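FAQ: What does the model actually see?

It sees only this:
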Amino acid sequence: MDRFDAMRAYVRVVESGSFTKAAQQLNAHKATVSQQIAQLEAKINTRLLTRTTRSVAPTAEGLTYYQHACTILKQMDDVEAQLRQGAQAPSGHLRVNVPVAVGRQILAPEIRDFLKRYPQVSIELACSDRAVDIVGEGVDCVLRGGVLPDSSLSARFVGNLRFVLCAAPSYIEENGLPHTPQDLLRHQQVGFLLASTGKVRAIALTQGEQSLSFDLPARFVTTDSAAALSAALDGLGIVLLAQFVASHYLASGALVQVLPQWLPPSMPLHFVTPSRHRSAARVKVFMDWAQRVMTRRLGAGLEANSAR
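And it is asked to produce this:
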């Protein structure tokens, strides 16, 4: 027995005073409605209706049950209506987690535009470079970099993020400028600790079909991209930065590009949501909006049309 179907049938019987009329309203057979009421009475071990050949009326206990059933069914109808509306119109609270640099430099400065476009949506923007447990932490949408593992999560490709190898002039003056990849072996890096492996990220470089990778020593290691940038500006070592992060400092001379003829591999970016089912409207419009903003703000730093 479906408790809510039986409850709804009971309410219709009380309000119409007839099993026949209730069945017509529910587009069901009279025998089905009668069986639902009998099962409901058996379930709660209480007689709910007084039946005669001409009428049906609730008992005292049945009237109490009717009043509570009306309240429960109305609450369920209201909740279902809100969920249906939420699946169609952008509304509700949205929890998003993105890398520190993207959140601070790209999305946060533009978030006023999103809130203006969607006045019924509120947003909690967490900026973190750590791996996020989307389901466990109740996050609606995460921006993740790197190759995604196979899972039940739904991923939407954003683009490939470009990187640049650089260092502060003070570091170059003290340690010299590398002219070949092998020269890197005499240098140290500002280490970025990868949450996926727990290891310091290697310096990978490509030129044509040639690819090289170096595990440079690091006296300073961090899991925060903002801290890595700060340490590099202070001359603590060579650092691998997203191009959009480094571009301002390269233009001002606060950083110098190292081995510009060798390119670090780009990194795929994806928006990840908790399931493969259709996302709520607030999630979809945020991803649409954020992808437009990132494509515009990142410029050449994001290869939007690269292979997935």
